Amino acid sequence: MTKKIELDTLRVAGDAVVAALVTHAVKLDRGFVVGFRRPVAILVRRRGATICFRLDGGVMGRAAFEDAHRGAIGEFETRAARLQTPTVPAAREPGAAPVNNS
């Protein structure tokens, strides 16, 4: 059985981005694929700060988290920044009528 730890899907909740760090494994057992997926920790990014939580709800220090899960915080912050980047609609002249392309 091969185990792997990675970030799960990032979710946006208000001004926060949340993701679980999960471990998952898959194996072939008597012709059937068997696997599991379990959370290891939760990461929350809000107002430019990332907080790491253990599954019991306790806060885990950044250095301790990074020692246990090298690179996970950096990946999370990079992906979270992409989600939090505001998009600006295309500008129009003030008072201009909407464009009709038909």
In terms of topology, how is this protein built?
Blueprint: E1 2-7, E2 11-13, E3 16-29, E4 32-46, E5 49-54, E6 59-60, H1 62-68, H2 72-84
Antiparallel strand pairs: 1-3, 2-3, 3-4, 4-5, 5-6
Short overview:
The protein has 102 residues and is an alpha+beta fold.
- Write down the overall geometry: elongated
Derived from helix and strand composition plus strand pairing, the structural class reads alpha+beta
Query: Ranges with pLDDT <50 over ≥5 residues?
Result: none
What's the quaternary structure here?
single chain
How are helices and strands ordered from N to C? Answer: EEEEEEHH
Number of beta-strand segments: 6
% residues in beta strands? over 45%
Contiguous helical run count: 2
pLDDT averaged over residues: 84
- The CA-CA distance between the termini, in Å, is 57 Å
Describe this structure in words.
The chain has 102 residues and is an alpha+beta fold. The protein has helices spanning 62-68, 72-84, and strands spanning 2-7, 11-13, 16-29, 32-46, 49-54, 59-60.
Search tags:
102 residues; 2 helices; 6 strands; 45% strand
